[in-house]
Amino acid sequence: xxxxxxxxxxxxxxxxxxxxxxxxxxxxxxxxxxxxxxxxxxxxxxxxxxxxxxxxxxxxxxxxxxxxxxxxxxxxxxxxxxxxxxxxxxxxxxxxxxxxxxxxxxxxxxxxxxxxxxxxxxxxxxxxxxxxxxxxxxxxxxxxxxxxxxxxxxxxxxxxxxxxxxxx
Length: 168
Fold this sequence. Notes:
The protein is mainly alpha-helical. The chain is 64% helix and 8% strand.
C-alpha cells in the first residue's frame, strides 16, 4: 500500500473548481470523484483476495451467481442481465472459467437458441472458498461504519434507481 498523501487531493480539487468559478458543481464533482476513488480502493482489495484463487472479480461474480441459482445453471443471456454486463463480457468470463474446469456450457433443453452455463463441482467449491475469503478479508472489514453502510446502501440505491438501473 502506498504512503498516504498529506492532504485529500479530492478536497483540493473541489477548492480548485470553486476558485475557477464552478462552485455550483464543485461538491458533486468531489462526490463523484470520491466514489470513483473508493471503487478503485475496494476493487484492489477484492482482486488481492481473489488472485490466489485464480479469479478476477468479474469471474467471481459469475461463479457466485451460478452458485445461487437453484439448478446451479443459468442461460448466458440471463447471467448477462443479472450481472449487468454486456454478453461479450459474460462469454469471455465463461471461456476462462470453462478452461479452468469451473463451469460447463450445455444446450438449453427446450430452447435451442440458448446456452446454459453450469457450475462444476470444482467451480462450486472454489466459489465457496473465495466467498469465505472475501467475507473475512473485505466485507467484514469494509472500513465503513455500520450506520454508514446503511446510509450508503440507501443513497447509492436511490441513485441507481433514478439512473434506470432497476425499477423496484
